Amino acid sequence: MVSVDSSIVRVQHRAGLASETFRRFHTAVERDHAVTRRVDDYATALCYSPHTLTRATLAATGRTAKQYVDDRVLLEAKRLLQHSGLTTKEVTVRLGFTDASDFTKFFRLRTGMTPGAFREGPGSRGC
Asked: Are 39 and 67 in contact (CB under 8 A)?
């Protein structure tokens, strides 16, 4: 009976560590998503391995750490394209991409359209 109780405590402890790890990762991504999209950079900054970040992120969101970072960058890209009035080039720079073609490839791979087509979509005309 003691071993069952102690294994439950160990599992709860690990779950708590995973949620703390994810909380720290989430905070770092919110702060630095325009600086880096590399999970290795976040892992180094937070003193975790990339695998640890991915496990914690999967447990919290069902997405890998890389997918989580990319999702955040994509959300910010969409927000900037729709609401900021910045050019695509300015959005590229704001999000830390080295050139517009890299940003366009990133955006198109995840949305199926270019940033310009997204901006010109139905929502941009009030429809």
From this structure: no
